């Protein structure tokens, strides 16, 4: 954002002692304090000393404001819920507003720990001053210098924006001007007014609205007149004029428009049509959709004629928007006279519930305005970096602006799937009660971990009306959330439960569609408490089939063993019952009673056996950490076998092998092992990236968090190779390679191990591992050289092929990888810090090494071709 301290300004904040000490001071009434005398004229030799002294004084006072180690503040102002310490003596000397405030000791402030405490919303009613703007304002009061605006509070998150006139930049300047006006700092008001005058001509007309509002409030006639001229020339509709501006300003804009339009070009407006449209809008203002239906039935005006959906998306409650959409008579993608769809209007409002309601009814997130902006970009231009990137703790409400952006971006990337419903309820849960229990648990945990997102999904799905959640605010001491109706028939009960299941299923579907990251957190959390649904759903379709078959086999074995055990228990129970003689014991050991007891015991024991089988499947057959550990050991064993096989084959089929030195034979075998690993990892990487469903766009969920047992096993085998090869390099250092090989292997092993164990960024790891396709060619070149075939045609062909392969796999592919990281940077930011750093550092380091090696290959190829010529 441009610095607010304009060099062209006639007011200098850095060097003028008059401005910081005289112009903003006031004359005390009653002669209680003498008027500040003009500063004496300093000799030319003392000018530099005076400037230096004033600069040092300014720095010391700024330390007084910012240094929290020695807190000398005597009052606090609460801004956005957090207290800001102030020194009343300094603020009293600088501002008449604060002098009047502090002179009324105990009025308007509450004492907290011996300090007076004031609340910003009470000091400035009807206006908003953010913490960042207030800190910049305080800094000016303390130092006489105006600091640059903080980046995170004054730039938007649209990557294509120049940030010279976006909403956060304007909003920050407006807040600062509002503070300067209310707290009566005239010279700062003058400077900021000139800054906002520049904004008016650059900004979109919607962003001029807050400038006009603060100009009207602060009685800044020059700025107000400029804003009126700008809005009058724009295509901002009359409804926005009525809703956003004071009545006198709106009338002035209308008058300006009438005067600027030629009489012959004035369009004729049907007064009756306009009257009917206003009635519909007034009905929407009163949240009365039934009245809207009545007005539609009594006139020829439609919802589209009145742009009712645009109006509701801009000014009405989200429930009114939902009810209006349920009428089914409005076009959700209709563009108004300004080229905006209802979704564009909702994006400007930044209300998640309205956006989701429109999207669920078919609104397109791909529609653009006349100037080429879609809903996501509109929302991004209105959102500051602070609001978007500030992390929220689990259980805290997320920022609304960030939720809106995430919803719209998710919708743009979404590919609807017919089989998506299968992910919303657990496998093997055909029983209605079990399915309902799962859904209620999931929604309850969502309300606990992600309150804002869960509230939004439940509101759209009308889950608040289900019996489970209407009573959630009641005391937990009550015995039941819902009284049990003993006269309820099974049909009625199933119908009621089915209705709850459908509603909660829709809630979960909305969560998976618009909040995939939150859904993944819930999936991981629920894995430990629910049956192995999530483990059975992991992996490719083939892996899922194998897991399900094995799971069913285990269950069947457990059932058979259980049936044999219960048959023996039943016989022993019946035989023991005949030995009792008392009436009570006879009753208890009656065959029917025994069978009933056995049936109850059977059910409980059967569930116990089933859960034991599920526990076995989870912890032994499907455990990712076991796959990772065993795959590394398998990898070490496989590459040791490859080393031995290379030795055996070379001894049998290459006569010159025996004449090689010991070190040459070790390197020969090592390169055979290296080639085997390169072929293995290249094939599996190409399959995983381009042919498997693991990283497909057709699968819901963030691509950076996807993994499967097969992908983990493959990475573990590769880690086994790097460990084995590093051990040999260290053992025979530097015979098998210098420091560059050690660095390459350490970086690769670290990155591959992290993605294997964490499951993060496996796509990028596999893309990097594709570059191993060049390794067999390099090893073949060494084999030819060692075998004395350096002048053969095979050596020349190998050099050309190696050059091409290296260019494609280690240069161009890495460039594509960096582009891919840039495209999905928002997803990468959600990784853990270590994984986030690895994503950038490892590919960058390997790319630099690849370029260095590529230059060597190019020089070698030129040298070989020159010798041939």
UniProtKB/TrEMBL annotation:
Region Disordered: start-end pairs: 24-47
Record CDD domains: BTB_POZ_NPR_plant (cd18310)
SUPFAM superfamilies named among the record's database cross-references: Ankyrin repeat, POZ domain
Pfam entry (one): NPR1_like_C
Pathway recorded for this protein: Protein modification; protein ubiquitination
Domain BTB: 73-150
Membrane topology reported for the UniProt record: Multi-pass membrane protein
Low complexity bias locations: 24-34
Record carries keyword Transmembrane: yes
Biological processes per GO annotation: defense response to bacterium; defense response to fungus; regulation of jasmonic acid mediated signaling pathway; regulation of salicylic acid mediated signaling pathway; systemic acquired resistance, salicylic acid mediated signaling pathway
All copies of domain TLC, residue ranges: 663-866
Spans traversing the lipid bilayer: 620-639, 672-690, 710-732, 739-757, 763-784, 796-822, 834-854
Gene Ontology annotations for the cellular component aspect, listed alphabetically: membrane; nucleus
Domain C2HC NPR-type: 153-167
Entry's family note: Belongs to the plant 'ANKYRIN-BTB/POZ' family. 'NPR1-like' subfamily.
Protein name: Regulatory protein NPR1
Organism encoding this protein: Musa troglodytarum (fe'i banana)
């Amino acid at each position: 954002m441009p610095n607010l301290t304009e060099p062209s300004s006639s007011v200098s904040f850095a060097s003028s002692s008059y401005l910081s000490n005289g112009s903003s001071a006031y004359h005390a009434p009653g002669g209680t304090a003498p008027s500040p005398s003009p500063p004496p004229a300093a000799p030319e030799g003392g000018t530099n000393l005076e400037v230096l002294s004033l600069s040092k004084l300014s720095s010391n006072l700024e330390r007084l404001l910012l240094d929290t180690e020695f807190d000398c503040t005597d009052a606090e102002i609460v801004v956005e819920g957090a207290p800001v310490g102030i020194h009343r003596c300094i603020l009293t000397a600088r501002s008449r507003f604060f002098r009047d405030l502090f002179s009324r000791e105990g009025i308007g402030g509450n004492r907290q720990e011996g300090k007076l405490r004031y609340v910003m919303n009470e000091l400035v009613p009807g206006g908003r001053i953010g913490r960042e703007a207030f800190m910049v304002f305080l800094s000016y009061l303390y130092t006489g210098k105006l600091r640059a605006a903080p980046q995170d509070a004054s730039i938007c998150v649209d990557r294509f924006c120049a940030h010279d006139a976006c909403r956060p930049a304007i909003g920050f300047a407006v807040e600062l001007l509002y503070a300067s006006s209310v707290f009566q700092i005239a010279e700062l008001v003058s400077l900021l007014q000139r800054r906002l005058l520049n904004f008016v001509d650059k900004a979109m007309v919607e962003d001029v609205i807050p400038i006009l509002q603060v100009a009207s409030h602060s009685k800044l006639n020059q700025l107000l007149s400029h804003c009126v001229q700008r809005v009058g020339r724009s295509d901002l509709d009359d409804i926005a004029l009525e809703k956003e501006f004071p009545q006198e300003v709106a009338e002035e804009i209308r008058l300006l428009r009438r005067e600027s339009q030629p009489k012959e070009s004035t369009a004729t407006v049907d007064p009756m049509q306009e009257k009917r449209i206003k009635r519909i809008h007034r009905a929407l203002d009163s949240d009365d959709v039934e009245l809207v239906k009545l007005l539609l039935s009594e006139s020829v005006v439609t919802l589209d004629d009145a742009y009712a959906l645009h109006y509701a998306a801009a000014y009405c409650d989200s429930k009114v928007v939902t009810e209006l959409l349920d009428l089914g008579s409005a076009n959700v993608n209709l563009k108004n006279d300004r080229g905006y769809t209802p979704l564009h209007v909702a994006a400007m409002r930044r209300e998640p519930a309205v956006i989701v309601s429109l999207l669920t009814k078919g609104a397109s997130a791909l529609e653009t305005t006349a100037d080429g902006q879609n809903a996501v970009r509109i929302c991004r231009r209105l959102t500051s970096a602070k609001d978007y990137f500030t992390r929220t703790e689990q259980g805290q409400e997320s920022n609304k602006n960030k939720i809106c952006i995430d919803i719209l971006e998710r919708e743009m990337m979404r590919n609807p799937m017919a089989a998506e419903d299968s992910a919303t309820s657990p496998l093997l849960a055909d029983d209605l009660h079990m399915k309902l229990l799962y859904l209620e648990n999931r929604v309850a945990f969502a309300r606990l971990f992600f309150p804002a997102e869960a509230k939004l999904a439940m509101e759209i799905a009308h889950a608040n009306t289900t019996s489970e959640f209407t009573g959630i605010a009641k005391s937990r001491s009550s015995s039941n959330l819902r009284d049990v109706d003993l006269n309820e028939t099974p049909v009625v009960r199933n119908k009621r439960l089915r209705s709850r299941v459908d509603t909660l299923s829709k809630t979960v579907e909305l969560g998976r569609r618009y909040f995939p990251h939150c859904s993944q957190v819930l999936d991981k959390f629920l894995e430990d408490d629910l049956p192995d649904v999530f483990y059975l759903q992991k992996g490719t379709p083939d892996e899922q089939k194998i897991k399900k078959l094995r799971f069913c086999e285990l269950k069947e074995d457990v059932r058979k063993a259980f049936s044999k055990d219960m048959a023996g228990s039943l016989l022993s129970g019946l035989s023991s019952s005949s030995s009792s003689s008392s009436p009570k014991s006879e009753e208890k050991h009656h065959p029917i009673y025994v069978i009933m007891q056995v049936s109850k015991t059977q059910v409980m024991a059967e569930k116990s056996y089933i859960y034991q089988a599920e526990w076995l499947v989870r912890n032994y057959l499907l455990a990712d950490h076991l796959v990772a550990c065993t795959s590394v050991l398998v990898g070490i064993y496989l590459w040791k076998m490859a080393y031995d096989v290379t030795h055996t084959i070379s001894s049998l089929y290459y006569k010159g092998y025996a004449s090689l030195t010991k070190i040459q034979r070790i390197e020969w075998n090592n390169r055979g092992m290296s080639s085997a690993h390169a072929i293995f990892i290249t094939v599996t990487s190409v399959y995983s990236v381009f042919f498997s469903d693991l990283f497909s766009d057709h699968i819901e969920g963030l691509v950076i968090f996807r993994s499967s047992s097969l992908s983990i096993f493959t990475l573990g085998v590769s880690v086994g190779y790097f460990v084995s090869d590093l051990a040999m390099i260290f053992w025979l250092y530097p015979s098998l390679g210098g420091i560059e090989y050690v660095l390459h292997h350490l970086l690769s092993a670290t990155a591959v191990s992290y993605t294997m164990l964490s499951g993060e960024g496996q796509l990028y790891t596999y893309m990097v591992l594709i570059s191993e396709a060049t390794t067999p060619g390099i090893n073949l070149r060494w084999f030819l050289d060692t075998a004395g075939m350096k002048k053969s045609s095979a050596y020349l062909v190998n050099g050309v092929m190696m050059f091409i392969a290296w260019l494609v796999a280690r240069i161009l592919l890495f460039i594509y990888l960096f582009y891919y990281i840039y495209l999905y940077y928002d997803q990468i930011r959600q990784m853990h810090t270590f994984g986030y750093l690895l994503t950038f550092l490892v590919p960058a380091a390997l790319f630099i090494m690849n370029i260095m090696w590529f230059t060597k290959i190019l020089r070698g190829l030129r040298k070989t071709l020159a010798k041939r010529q």
